[in-house]
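User: Could you walk me through two proteins back to back? I'd like the raw sequence and the structure tokens for each, with a short line separating them so I can tell where one ends and the next begins.

Assistant: Of course. Protein one, sequence then structure:
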Amino acid sequence: MLTDKALKALRPREKPYKRADEKGLYVIVQPDTLDADGNVSRRGGIWWRFKYRVDGREKTLSMGTYPDTSLKLAREQRDQARADLAAGVDPSAKRQAQKAARADTFETVARDWLKSLNVKQTTVDQLRHRLETYAFPYIGRAPIATVRAADVLGMVRRVESRGKHETAHRIRSLCSRVFRFAVASGIAERDPAADLKGALAAVKTSSFPAITDPKQIGALLRAIDGYHGQPTVTAALKLAPLLFTRPGELRAAEWAEFDVEGKTPEWRIPGERMKMGQALIVPLSTQAIAVLEELRPISGNGRLLFPSLRSSSRPISENTLNAALRTLGFSKDQMTAHGFRTMASTRLNELGFNPDAIERQLAHARAGVRGIYNAAEYLPERRRMMQSWADYLDGLKAGASVRAIRGRR
């Protein structure tokens, strides 16, 4: 028989393996998923299964994952399935019939909402994983119109009780988006999750560590120029402060997205690769073009600017740039790859550039109707800003005295 202590001690291996409880109940321990660079991209898991026979055929019934589905709850589900079998009812057939009868459950509505999102697939997968892990096991089967604020609170309190305060807030907000979708679809009348604002413990938030002092920025840029790692990583490090896109957008950049020979050199990032699902134009300074021209003989014959060493069809991992910064002597509390965005935002605002143009170049979403924009918004102003920013960084790198380059508001 399994115990909670034994379950907590289970660790993923190279291949899935089983551990039995009793009366047909067992767990499968799934291996971690690794990316092309050998880093863990998704944790495995401990999945509950119930094995039984109907008419001489062996069948299995899924019962969730541990620890979200506890040992006690898994055994209760197993006992109910055994009772169904004793009554001549196939547990799997019963579950399918229940699903068919619950067309408007929280889970089915949530999955429809996920399909409606106009964001990149990795974001959809992340949201789906959170719902499947934290919400569906508790409120997924309930008709969405009947879910109360107390039901949602009980669910997020379970998450909070495990010390995952930030996750609890995210799940409440995520459920609220599903309920609002249901209201807009005429399936529910209100959003019960909205009643829980302030009910959870506050989370102390902090921005990504970033260097924003001009003299320290100069030292960072000089360190990057002295980096002796892979040429593709060196190029990515040099482009990060010049372009200040999100790290995921930069590392997955494709040569076909760049136009460096036209009148107005630019990088057009398609919406499916953007966090908010909307395309972005990144004007290219002469300094950025110079880095790209140095990189072209190295990776220009392939699709990606920064291919992984293990597979030319996959980009460098999300940890590569942060690892390079650590190699250069900058700790995780000093500077991160995402910190180049904070650096640019802070300095550009202090230097007097139009805040709306800065926010558009950062691809930050804006509330309400103003959140709907086209890729060319403020584009002439952004072109001037990006070249001035690159020139300013050159000055800091050369050790020049800090001098304001007032942008046009």
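----
Protein two, same layout:
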Amino acid sequence: MRTFTETGERPFVIGAARTEILAPPLAWSNRFAEERAIVCPDVFEPALLDRLLGVARRSHYREEDVSRLGTRQVEAPQTLGTMLTLLLRRANLMAWLEQVTGTAGLAGVEGHVVQTRAGGDALDWHDDRNKPGRALGVTISLIDSEFSGGAFEMRRVGAPESVRTFQHARPGTALIFAIGRDVEHRLLPLASGGPRRVFAGWFMRDAIPAEQA
């Protein structure tokens, strides 16, 4: 099993008022083509990250049973989730992601803040194609407590040896990954500590390609 490549390079930074693109898309597009995902560290300005983590700690979470997949907790009401969808849907970031991933027509973001706890919360293999229009997945670490376990895993369908893994240990790190018929992902249970808290969402297309309809 391999981990997703982490270079430490910061490709973009999201502030309260604007998003700055720091890296040209070419090197990142090559990585996405190979691994079907990219790891983007420190995507928020420090002051904004501190604010987001504070909101995450104060938020309320309700139990959610994800049909046939597992259990977790979801922020309710979606205060921080709404803030993050607005921050992520800026036009220059979506244009950069279109170039990196070869995905045309990105037009919005949906998602929510979720957390899993030691003792059983987890999600089995799935592909996120249950809602039309989802083009790319994104998870962003909002973790402020130590834990073990809870890894995100992704694989190509029909190729078990292709599993790659990622641990959302550093707050503010984003994993942006492909959604399609050929890839699926899962979340392993925490062994101890936690909770494991992330924003889990999707970059959405303005039109649904025929193969996803």
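The domain at 2-206 is CATH 2.60.120.620 (Jelly Rolls).

Let me know if you want the two compared in more detail.
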